Amino acid sequence: MISVNDFRTGLTIEVDGGIWRVMDFQHVKPGKGAAFVRSKLRNLRTGAVQEKTFRAGEKVAKAQIENRRMQYLYANGDQHVFMDNESYEQIELPASTIEHELKFLKENMEVHIMMFQTETLGVELPNTVELKVVETEPGIKGDTASGGSKPAILETGLSVQVPFFINEGDVLIINTTDSSYVSRA
User: DSSP secondary-structure letter at 157?
Assistant: First the structure.
């Protein structure tokens, strides 16, 4: 058990039969009444985000999440196959559970698979990934780095806004949390 006063971003807890990750929290001490903790939680099974308020000092169960390093192998219809780098054990995850992550996954890419006991919860991506531009409008002479942006389609099918000087074939660094362009690789 852990006190809600000890919340920190990234902590995983068990509340109301669900496995939740603390995305944000705030300790509130009103002038009148008892103190409380307002939190923003993400359900690791469904991906739903919920705001929940706890009384100060309330205890919740800490969920023991194991992160296993695995390699993304391939898509097999609606299933996506990952292999454990140590035991060579393969697991399949349905596309519906990793919908957001699929925009960034390339074959042979290493990721962390979140496991709770024997249940697979999902894929944890690195903060940034390198993806190749497969389609974009050509740059025009005179376009500058700070002049604006244009859409580009990357090798995984993800569409992002990029500066005018980016061309087809360029490898870009993309932020996985908000799908934004960071820089050229």
Answer: S
Q: Which two tokens stand for residue 35?
A: 């103190």
What's the rounded Cα separation, in Å, for the pair 112 and 84? 10
pLDDT the model gives residue 147: 65
Report how far apart, in Å, the C-alpha atoms of 83 and of each of 12, 101, 113 are.
Answer: 24, 16, 10
pTM of the model: 0.71
User: Tokens 């006991």 — which residue?
Assistant: 117
Higher pLDDT, 74 or 48: 74
Measured in whole angstroms, the distance separating CA 171 from the mean position of its chain's CA atoms is: 21
Paired tokens of 133: 């531009």
Q: Half-sphere exposure of 105 toward its Cβ, with a 13 Å CA cutoff?
A: 26
Cα distance between residue 75 and residue 94, in whole Å: 10
**How many beta carbons lie within 10 A of that of residue 162, not counting itself?**
21
| DSSP label of 63 | P
